Amino acid sequence: MNDTDFSGEPQAPSFLGSVHLPLTLIAVALAINFFSDLRTAGKQAEIMKWQLTNLDRQTETLSNAKRELGGLIANNDQVVRQAQQIQGQYTNLFSDLIDLAKDDKDAKEIVDKWGIKRAGQAAEAPAAEAPKTEEPKADAPKSDAKAPALR
Questions:
Q1: Does residue 116 contact residue 100 with C-beta atoms inside 8 Å?
Q2: Computed over its alpha carbons, how large is the radius of gyration of the chain?
């Protein structure tokens, strides 16, 4: 029978034709969306907690590394001071050797052989040599023929 039938018989309301079905579907969709958002927010909270614990660990690691770096710098300062002291001793030794070379033949041979000079002295200029032309490598092909002239 039709819904527009105005006969006196009461008709059972049709669930498909009522307003309740669209409202129920909208309510279910909103409930699913709400619970999905809650779950996403919970997951994001877990991720944030994980990131914060990692940040704390990284901060602690960086502070430990900074402390160790300070210790290494202090140790290197001692090594640098020792190297400077040894360099000073060698400088004094070679200076004495250069002074001794003025009178002693053996000392002069050592100074000449190793080219020991004071820092302020100019190095003796080696005899000027003609610039050498590079020879082809052993594995390079040798070519005596001239390149063809372009016209």
A1: no
A2: 47
Tokens of 129: 């040599």
Tell whether the torsion through CA atoms of 56, 58, 60 and 63 is positive or negative. negative
pTM above 0.85, yes or no: no
> Cα angle vertex 75, ends 67, 59, to 5°?
10
Percent of the chain exceeding pLDDT 70 equals 68
Tens of pLDDT, residues 9-61: 666 555 556 788 889 999 999 999 999 999 999 999 999 999 999 999 999 99
Return phi, psi of residue 145, to 5°: -75, 145
Amino acid (1-letter code) at residue 91? T
Q: How far apart are CA 76 and CA 80, in angstroms?
A: 6
- Residue located via tokens 């210790």: 71
